[in-house]
Amino acid sequence: MVLTIIRILDIFLFIITAFSVGYLLFFAIMSMKENMPRHKEAKKKNRFLVLFPAYNEDTIILNSVERFMKHDYPSELYDLVVISDHMRDDTDSKIIELGGEVLKANYDNSSKAKALKFAIEHKGHIDYDVIVILDADNIVEPTFLNEINNAYSSGSKAIQAHRVAKNRDTEMAILDAVSEEINNSIFRRGHVRIGMSSALIGSGMAFDFQWFKDNVNHLNTAGEDKELEVLLLKQGIYIDFLNWVFVYDEKTRSQSTFAKQRRRWVAAQFSILKTSIKDLPKAIWERNWDYADKLIQWIMLPRVVVMGFAFCFAVGMLFIDWVWAIKWWIILIVLMYSFAMAIPDFLVDKKLKKTFHKLPLVFVIMVFNIMRIRGVNKKYIHTKKGVK
Question: Which of 33, 67, 132, 262 has the smallest set of CB atoms within 10 Å of its CB?
Answer without folding.
Answer: 33
